[in-house]
Specification:
The chain has helices at about 105, 115-130, 140-145, 160-170, 175-185, 190-200, 205-215, 225-230, 235-250, 250-255, and strands spanning about 15-20, 25-30, 40-45, 55-60, 65, 70, 75-80, 85-90, 110, 265, 270. It is of the alpha+beta class.
Length: about 270
């Protein structure tokens, strides 16, 4: 990969972009009036500049302020940003070994200290902005870009890994736990036990997160909320809105409104420039 340099770019409306892969997300955009959110992956929040720190409240604890915040999967939290934009990396919990995380992720819940990582994220935002609309992101390696090395993958039972692969490929599918157990020739009870043992969360929680995560692929669509709800596998707009707010701390309409000037780069569907 080319030397990316360490240039920085001011956080303006033209700085908004989101890069989606199956197991990673980089978001540079509006944070909005976020309520309590509970994400299914590792959430890493980085301020856009030292002059505009971010704040996080973990559970019902005290607010913490700084340039870098780390929130493990399934931990309720609230985030505020001094500036209009925030950088947010999301790393899927099923994709990385929790024992071999980067040190700042392994030892932190809330404010973390990793100035080189913070500088790198800001620089890579500038690099991606320069590439947006000019070259495909498929040539970039997410982990090398932001972490400087591949993150160690999580070792999973092959049967559970096959189920996860199918759910990642189509989060909207309505496959039940019973059906998933049948895919890999396990009894229903054995599947549920093995899934939680391997992944760390119940199957139902995992599937709900993957479905909510898939909304990110639709934030630039112009369809109705009902259309997007059905496309992402929800039975109706009411269930959709309730589930999304539980995960992101925002209503779907607020997420879509805040994404109007966002450049979306989807590894599965190419780039949709703003």
């Amino acid at each position: 990969m080319r030397d990316e340099g360490m240039a920085t770019t001011p956080a303006s409306a033209g700085s908004r972009l989101m890069w989606l892969t199956t197991q990673r997300v980089f978001y540079a955009g509006l944070l909005g009036p976020v309520g309590v959110r509970v994400m299914g992956g590792w959430g890493i929040y980085v301020s856009t500049s030292p002059a505009e720190p971010i704040r996080v409240c973990i559970g019902g604890g005290a607010w913490q302020s700084g340039d870098l915040m780390v929130v493990p999967p399934q931990v309720p939290h609230r985030v505020e940003s001094t500036g209009p934009l925030v950088f947010n990396l999301l790393v899927e919990a099923d994709s990385i070994d929790p024992v071999r995380l980067p040190e700042f992720m392994k030892t932190s819940c809330g404010c973390a200290h990793a100035p080189e990582f913070v500088a790198r994220v800001r620089a890579m935002h500038a690099r991606l902005l320069a590439a947006s609309g000019r070259e495909p992101f498929e040539g970039f390696d997410f982990d090398l870009l932001f972490f400087g090395q591949p993150l160690a993958p999580r070792a999973l039972d092959a049967r559970i890994a096959r189920v996860i692969e199918r759910l990642n490929a189509d989060p909207a599918q309505s496959a039940s736990a019973q059906e998933c157990a049948g895919w890999v020739h396990l009894s229903f009870s054995r599947f549920l036990h093995l899934f939680k043992e391997e992944v760390g969360v119940p199957f139902r929680t995992f599937r709900a997160w993957k479905r909510a995560r898939s909304l990110l692929r639709y934030v630039r669509q112009t369809g109705t909320l009902t259309d997007i709800a059905l496309d992402t596998g929800y039975p109706d707009a009411t269930h959709f809105s309730h589930s999304i707010r539980q995960v992101y701390g925002l209503r779907p309409s607020e997420i879509l409104a805040g994404s109007r000037r966002l450049a979306l780069h989807d590894a599965a569907a190419g780039a949709l420039a703003s």
